[in-house]
Structure formats: structure tokens, C-alpha cells
Amino acid sequence: MFTDTRTTTPYAAALLRVTLGVAFLAHGLLLKIMTFGLAGTMGYFGSIGYPPILGAVVAIAETAAGIALIAGVWTRVVSIAALPIMIGATIQHMGKGWLFNAPGGGWEFPAMWTVLLLVQAGLGAGAFALDINKLLGRGAVEARA
Are 116 and 21 in contact (CB under 8 A)? Predict the structure, then answer.
């Protein structure tokens, strides 16, 4: 039962998709927007040498990516589009050590997140994804794992 990839792959892809989506909502909406606020997030980005507006862009992009991934809308595109955010986070934390609990955070978590986005882009949306074509009245497109 659990060895047939035609049966398990769509559900594994969906589990990964929803997990990534929840993580993006936690980082974008809960942490950056609701905890620090856009002004605080922009201030932090400015303090580490980035244009402050990039903080707002990242917070909003992470929130939008989280919603899209949880819903299963444009999963491959969203996964690829979120890569620059996670590559930037990995680079930002690279010199601060391996573990994320190190002062300033480590780089292993954003690096893993980057790889997981690539895996998600390769797998596609999987099971339980919204069919955007159906929502837009274009007719259903056969879903693939």
C-alpha cells in the first residue's frame, strides 16, 4: 500500500506543500507583519544593509506564497518565485554558524527550505490542490503528481 508511488506521491507532495505554506505564513504574516510590523521589518532590513522596502516586499511575498501553497494554486511557480527569498536568507545567515539557535541564526534552516522549495517545484501541487482553471471557468485540467 505505501510502496506504490502513484498512490503516495500526490499525498506526499500535498503534505510538503501545506507544510511549506504554513511555514511561510508563520514567517511572513505572524513574525514579520503581526509581530514586528512592516515598519519594524523594514527597519531590520535597513539595519543589515538592504533597502528597507525589501523588508515589506519579503513579508508580503512570504504571506502570499504561504496562502498559495496551502491552497495549491500555482504551486510550481510560487515555489520557484520564493527561491530568491530563501537564497537571500541563507546568504544572510551564512556567516553566523550552522545551527539556527546560534547568535544571529544559522544557515541550515533557510538552506533546507531552499531545497524543499526545489523539491516542491519538481513534484507539483499533489493532492487536494485547488484547480485554478476550474475556478476561472476554463474547464478542468488533468491533475498530475
Answer: no
